[in-house]
Specification:
- By secondary structure, this protein is α/β, with parallel strands linked by helices.
- It has one domain: HUPs (Rossmann fold), CATH 3.40.50.620.
- Helices cover about 35% and strands about 15% of the residues.
- A 6-stranded parallel beta sheet has the order 3-2-1-4-5-6, with helices on both faces.
- α1 links the parallel β1 and β2.
- It is globular.
- The termini are far apart.
């Protein structure tokens, strides 16, 4: 329900495992085209569709804060991290709606395949506008969405690729050393 006294925002949630320049591009593009006072970036404690993440939740939150600390109209929300469990998007939206009018939910095209499996998808689909960021190699079929906006992002970056030790030039320079240490530690533990 739209409340005219609350400011419009877009929610951009995700694992951000790790946060990279593709995520920044999505934020800048969304700020350009959406009618919002800000974008609220919400790192997840653990994606409900995954069993683990490379980077500890609190470290991912720290990385996101570092990478976005100079961008106006961006707020980092730690609600899901503080929950200390997998949190569904509808829960985060309900939490944010206490102070904002959540108008948009930003996702990558890689989420479209499983989107109908999201908890309370029908409610989300009825009440919010999806913002779908393009992703090379992923289908862009949005026919099942009630309302959506396409967000075409040129940069082709994969968090999976970065986690495997490649493409560090796509990560904020302030994060690279810590990220390399985390990846090397994980590799060393796997070889024991």
């Amino acid at each position: 329900m739209v409340n005219s006294t609350k400011r419009n925002i877009a929610l951009f949630g995700g694992s951000f495992d790790p946060f990279h320049n593709g995520h920044r591009d999505i934020i800048f593009k969304a700020l350009d085209i959406l009618d919002v006072s800000k974008i609220v970036v919400t790192p997840s404690y653990l994606n409900p569709f995954k069993n683990s993440s490379l980077i500890d939740p609190n470290k991912r939150l720290e990385f996101v804060r570092l990478a976005l600390d100079t961008i106006d109209r961006v707020e980092i929300e730690d609600y899901e991290i503080k929950a200390n469990r997998s949190v569904y998007t509808f829960e985060t939206v309900k939490y944010l709606e206490k102070k904002y009018n959540v108008k948009y939910i930003i996702i990558g095209a890689d989420n479209l395949e499983d989107l109908r499996k999201w908890s309370k998808f029908e409610w989300l689909n009825r009440n919010f506008i999806w913002v779908i960021a393009s992703r090379k190699g992923y289908n862009f079929n949005c026919d099942f969405l009630d309302r959506y906006i396409s967000l075409f992002v040129d940069r082709d970056i994969s968090s999976t690729e970065i986690r495997s030790g490649k493409n560090f030039n796509q990560v904020d320079k302030r994060l690279v050393t810590s990220l390399k240490e985390i990846i090397n530690k994980r590799k060393n533990n796997e070889h024991r």
